[in-house]
Amino acid sequence: MPILTCENLSKRYGAVQALDHVNLRIEPGRIVGLLGPNGSGKSTLIKLANGLLTPTEGQILIDGKAPGVETKTIVSYLPERTYLADWMSVRQILNYFQDFYGDFDRERAISMLGHLGIEEKQRIKQMSKGTREKVQLILVMSRRAKLYLLDEPIGGVDPAARDYILNTIIGNYDPRAAVVISTHLIADVEQMLDEVIFINGGHIIRHSPVDEIREEIGKSVDALFREEFKCF
Amino acid sequence: MRWEFHNDAPIYAQVMERVERMIVSGALAPGERLPSVRTFAMEAGVNPNTMQKALTELERGGLIYSQRTSGHFVTEDQAVIASVRAELAELHTDQFLQDMRELGFTSAQTAELLHRKLENKEEE
Prior knowledge:
The structure holds two protein chains of two kinds. Chain A is α/β, with parallel strands linked by helices. Chain A contains nine helices and nine strands. In chain A, the strands form two sheets. Chain A has a six-stranded mixed sheet with strand order 5-6-7-3-8-9, with helices on both faces. A three-stranded antiparallel sheet of chain A has the order 2-1-4, with helices on one face. By secondary structure, chain B is mainly alpha-helical. Chain B has two domains: 11-76, Arc Repressor Mutant, subunit A (Orthogonal Bundle); 79-123. Chain B has helices at residues 11-24, 37-44, 48-60, 78-102, 107-123; strands at residues 64-67, 71-74. In chain B, strands 1-2 form a two-stranded antiparallel ribbon. In chain B, a hairpin with a 3-residue loop joins β1 and β2 (71-74). Chain B is elongated, with a radius of gyration of 18 Å. At the A-B interface, α6 and α8 of A face α2 and α3 of B.
């Protein structure tokens, strides 16, 4: 059964059609790139899956259920902006995640933080932007969820931090879970994706395996994207 | 360090070639155990499914073999390794010759340049 299903899913903000009758299925065990220019509907789709927005029309299902209290226990979400209070220490944040999420694997988080040399008494406000992003990703990936929704996980960090983040996603790969990564930095994520979804103006214009694009069209996803989204 | 990939072939095919080179060059010795799929995938910076697919294809060609519980191993069959080495050599030679043709070199000019370079190498 797909972990994420959209059926005729539409979302309108007043006159703006953010998503227009989207049909989509994402299966467990896949790492999927959600690719599109700014304002294409990427974040709207992620927020709908997460229950932060409700559909105007159609439906979105997580493991067969409409987003709600039940689905939040199996969806691990990395928002585009940081939400960690900067007065908190790492230990307080670990406690907070443990209280909120039954599937939070504290040992795993501590081990990953340890590799970065981050101690539990350290406070968020003492950390650089790159380190905060890494800590946030570690927390999100330390949940044993069925669906990971990562909204721009590598935007605004340096290339070394970017490699660390991508490796953390690969290292936590679970064949029972799907990972959706929304980004416009395609060349950086292409080699770790199973499939890509191109979204533009609220429409899914392509959903295919990366190797199919390379094999049949003979282009990298990055090159194809530049072509299909060319600004005239 | 993540492996670098070029744009015009599927990632799994490039992973295959990379592992073939590691075996042919001896970086991975005959009979040596490969890292687990997950570890190897992280090293390469690719999706574990892609690494699995590459290893399955290499297994089909006989260059590696798998044991149910203990993972993948490099073949100890020197004949298989030698034939992959020969294939890679053909591939690179063809590519080189094509590049030289595109630069406008005749076969004779290419051969002469190659001789000169190889003689210089031997003198060093």
